[in-house]
Amino acid sequence: MAKHTKTKEPGIYYRGPAQHKVKIRRKGVAVSRTFDIFADALHFKAMAVHETHIHIP
What we know:
This protein is an alpha+beta fold. It contains one helix and four strands. It has one helix spanning 38-52, and strands spanning 5-6, 12-16, 19-26, 29-35. The protein has a four-stranded antiparallel beta sheet with strand order 1-2-3-4, covered by helices on one side. Strand 3 and strand 4 (29-35) form a beta hairpin.
């Protein structure tokens, strides 16, 4: 069985009760982090994309 399931937001995976993992890998840059709250994961993803200038569709 898979360790995580995809959410509706690309790059954010549900890992279990109150665990959302952000995984971004574009153009040689890899960023991942786990959060308790989905909104925090969305915010981190937006900041990581902005700081690294990575376009995520």
